[in-house]
Specification:
Chains A, B: Catalyzes the ATP-dependent phosphorylation of thiamine-monophosphate (TMP) to form thiamine-pyrophosphate (TPP), the active form of vitamin B1. Chains A, B: Keywords: ATP-binding, Kinase, Magnesium, Metal-binding, Nucleotide-binding, Thiamine biosynthesis, Transferase. 2 copies of one chain form a homodimer. The first copy, chain A, is α+β, with helices and mostly antiparallel strands. Chain A folds into 2 domains: about 5-150, 60s Ribosomal Protein L30, Chain: A; about 165-345, Phosphoribosyl-aminoimidazole Synthetase, Chain A, domain 2. Helix content of chain A is about 35%, strand content about 25%. In chain A, the strands form 3 sheets. Chain A has a 7-stranded mixed beta sheet with strand order 8-10-7-11-9-12-13, sandwiched between helices. In chain A, helix 3 (about 105-120) links the parallel strand 4 (about 90-100) and strand 5. The longest helix of chain A has 18 residues, at about 105-120. Chains A and B meet through helix 1, strand 2, strand 3, helix 2 and strand 4 of A and helix 1, strand 2, strand 3, helix 2 and strand 4 of B. Strand 2 of chain A pairs antiparallel with strand 3 of chain B, so a sheet runs across the interface.
């Protein structure tokens, strides 16, 4: 079934969306239906605000991305930024620009994913804007979080001697993307071919439906650990470690053997894609894991958190940003990250 | 001169923008340069959040819209929503998706307009996202304001007997748009023709560089008036009065003779465009004036505010939403407003 959006109109569409998102949070005083949402800030807390834009043809390809997963991912990307400040997300706003290729049912599917994410992260949808676009889909999400000022963790406060930690595993989302792009090319050449996606659940899920690591934020709190600096890994470990080092005026030493790479990621990268798993972990994007530093005195505490890996330490800025390879060679880390502007030349 | 954006890269572009926007507000604790901005909420205040998306080819046409004005307008549109809640704007985030048609100089021009608006409204740019798009320009702005919960004014609280007020004058932005569209068609047919824009400053400015009515918000406070309901007029008076009436479960009676229409708007509509000035005032969009209701006991106070016009009163829902015409006929007001989704069929 396909219902044209102009059948509902902008106001009809907004009401349809709002009906599926009753407010749950005590801090959400007014959601959709007025000129602005009204949010209560908890006592002694400050507000955290982060915003991201996702553009069809640049950040996602709807030929292999289910809209429901895209809705989930768009929320995760923003919640991940609130997590990276050691904050608790409370609300999001979601704006869409849609071409007439998209039906009401497509919008419903997208918001189904948004709703799953809101439930997973315990947040409310409190506003947004829905408009048409001459071409494609553009998603703009703003996430609002709260944190006590003493517990907000910035990027520019890493200190010499701190231990460098990373959550989960790296490179999987990038490997997932390469597989999906490969299967898309195969499909274009031979539409009758079956996609080869066996034993690729992990890399697929990490690309299509990533989770923000709020679990780690709650665990850090539970174990009484306040990181000395933190950010999320959206552009790849190499790029992010440079942000922390440059802004904190320090350098870092990492160990290849400690950089967490899932076995499926490593095997798929090396055997199917002929890529170095380490390169995928360093320069692949969209991991949405957390990169943070802790004081040495917190080492015993951090070891109680299962999914945190100690990958190195912070040293003087003059010593640069380096990795000790398994071969015992020392490699300089260059910042790379996504260069969306170049892809579009 | 034309510098390609990929010469700077995303991070270079962000740094270039951030350098022009030092934080001014006491409530802006951290702006651009971390995963999220950090905002302090003033004592006993709540947060107001509003977001709008502007899409090239739908909301603006760069063949006659200077980017600097567009930057200013994009901020105004969002500040207007904060004003409509009786709040004070503090911060904005600005996200852009840009095709490679746009140079660094074009981005600079847009942000020059954003900066003028930030200065006019006393707000800080604290974040955003900049990415490429396969086609055209998409702007997504989120505005953050603050207000004491007792002073926040909603749409759903108008009461029978309240006096209906509107600021400024209506229909000018719509008339300005029609003139610009006409001149564009003339130019396409005969590129050597000079545009006829004499004596059109007011309608041009209202279309290209509208101002949010923060001045009225400050004056209401100064005169001790708390509106009983309020919203901004972005989709036309007819559409907005229906929002207030439906959400408040009331009706409204308005008087044609009291609906403020600037002389330039009226003359241009009638003589050049062969349009009814009243229709432009009722159904034209993008006025960004304020529509609000006050208690009758505030009538003496409101008359001290120069640019506020009393256009009617609130009555029972059963009596509908009507205008007493100058001809003494009674006309039903239908909600109309922008229907962007239909324009895109």
């Amino acid at each position: 079934m396909r219902t044209e959006i102009n059948k509902l109109g902008e106001f009809g569409l907004i009401e349809r969306i709002a009906a599926n998102f009753p407010l749950q949070k005590k801090t959400s005083k007014k959601g959709i239906a007025d000129d602005a949402a009204v949010i209560k800030i908890e006592e002694d807390k400050q507000l955290l605000v982060s915003t991201d834009m996702l553009v069809e043809g640049i950040h996602f390809d709807l030929s292999y991305t289910p809209l429901k997963h895209l809705g989930y991912k768009a929320v995760s990307v923003n919640v991940s930024d609130i997590a990276a400040m050691n904050g608790i997300p409370h609300q999001i706003t979601v704006s869409l620009a849609l071409s007439n290729r998209f039906s009401v049912e497509a919008v419903d599917e997208f918001y189904e994913g948004v709703k799953f994410a809101c439930e997973d992260y315990g947040i409310d949808l409190v506003g947004g804007d829905t408009t048409s676009s001459p071409k494609g889909l553009v998603i703009s999400i703003t996430a609002l979080g709260q944190a006590s000022p003493k517990k907000i963790v910035y990027r520019n406060t890493a200190k010499k001697g701190d231990v460098l930690c990373v959550t989960g595993d790296l490179g999987a989302a990038f490997v997932g993307l390469q597989i999906l792009e490969r299967e898309k090319r195969v499909f274009i050449d031979a539409p009758e071919a079956q996609p080869k996606l066996d034993n690729l659940e992990h890399v697929m899920e990490r690309q299509l439906k990533p989770k923000a690591r709020m679990d780690i934020i709650y665990e850090l709190e539970e174990h009484g650990i306040l990181p000395t600096s933190m950010m999320d890994i959206s552009d790849g470990l190499a790029s992010e470690i440079h942000h922390i080092c440059r802004q904190s005026n320090v350098g870092a030493m990492m160990y290849e053997k400690n950089i967490p790479i899932d076995e499926q990621t490593a095997v798929t990268a090396a055997e199917e894609l002929k890529l170095s798993p380490l390169t995928c972990a360093l320069n692949g994007g969209e991991d949405y894991e957390l990169l943070f530093t802790i004081k040495q005195e917190d080492l015993q505490k951090i070891e109680k958190i299962v999914d945190v890996h100690l990958i190195g330490y912070i040293h003087e800025a003059e010593k640069g940003v380096k990795v000790v390879m398994n071969s015992e060679q020392l490699m300089d880390i260059k910042a790379q990250g996504w260069k969306h502007f170049e892809e579009n030349e």
